[in-house]
Amino acid sequence: MRTFLIDGAVAGTWSLTDGQLELAPFARLRAPDRGALLSEAERQATFAGYRSVKLI
Asked: Which residue in 12, 34, 40, 52 is deepest, having the highest Cβ count within 10 Å?
């Protein structure tokens, strides 16, 4: 299972679908956490050559 962390705790899963990085948090994210997660995910997606990021 591919997971992501927020403040050192597992907060959700991620997957790749048709060149898109999809993030699925286990619970509603606080605004600062959501912003940080999306920012990091966009940097990683660009580096890896994925075309977009989607929070589901």
From this structure: 12
At residue 50, φ and ψ (nearest 5 deg) are -80, 150
Cβ pair 25, 35 in contact under 8 A: no
Decide if 37 contacts 7 (C-beta within 8 A). no
Token representation of residue 7: 């403040």
Domain count, the chain: 1
Residue 15: name the closest of 54, 51, 47, 43 by CA: 54
SS3 sequence of the chain: CCEEEECCEEEEEEEEECCEEEEEECCCCCHHHHHHHHHHHHHHHHHHCCCEEEEC
pTM, 2 dp = 0.88
